[in-house]
Specification:
Elements (H helix, E strand, L loop, with lengths): L1 H7 L4 H4 L5 H11 L7 H15 L5 H15 L1 H5 L3 H25 L12 H23 L6
Helix pairs in contact: 3-5, 4-5, 5-7, 7-8
């Protein structure tokens, strides 16, 4: 819920263009956690909700979040064997895939891109914030008594 608030909170234009994608970070975290029972259909539903909240093309974020959740789920065994820094480098691909797909879909529909040359800045910031976000979410799960193994 907090990630939705962080995504739709009003910020000045210069800052909103470089906002990390907190919702995608949350989806990747829950798709990575084996005990969460986070199915790919949940990522699709969250994506539809984001499409409605942001007023974007219906299905755009649903497709992107579904692809990223699928990649994360299929890479679970590979990611589990890596340390957090290596996981961050691997998951960087999901953040860049999200940025590329948004630019590609908007380009195909001749929608002006609000990002311009700042297209990959949100992906870079999401990548840099991932270790902090992951540790914070994992600690919250431990405090709530959820199994984090």
């Amino acid at each position: 819920m907090i990630s939705f608030v962080l995504e739709v909170i009003a910020l000045p234009n210069a800052i909103s263009l470089i906002r990390p994608n907190f919702i995608l970070m949350m989806i990747i975290f829950w798709a990575y956690m084996p005990y969460a029972h986070f199915h790919i259909i949940y990522a699709w539903g969250i994506g539809l909700l984001v499409d409605i909240l942001l007023g974007s093309l219906l299905g755009q974020y649903a497709l992107i979040f579904t692809i990223c959740a699928f990649i994360t789920k299929k890479s679970y065994v590979f990611l589990k064997e890596r340390n957090l820094f290596q996981q961050t480098l691997c998951l960087m691909g999901c953040f860049y895939v999200q940025a590329l797909l948004i630019a590609w879909i908007n380009g195909m529909l001749n929608y002006p891109s609000p990002y311009g040359k700042l297209l990959f800045i949100p992906a870079l910031l999401s990548t840099l914030l991932w270790p902090l976000f992951f540790n914070m979410m994992r600690n919250c799960c431990i405090l709530l008594g959820m199994d984090t193994k």
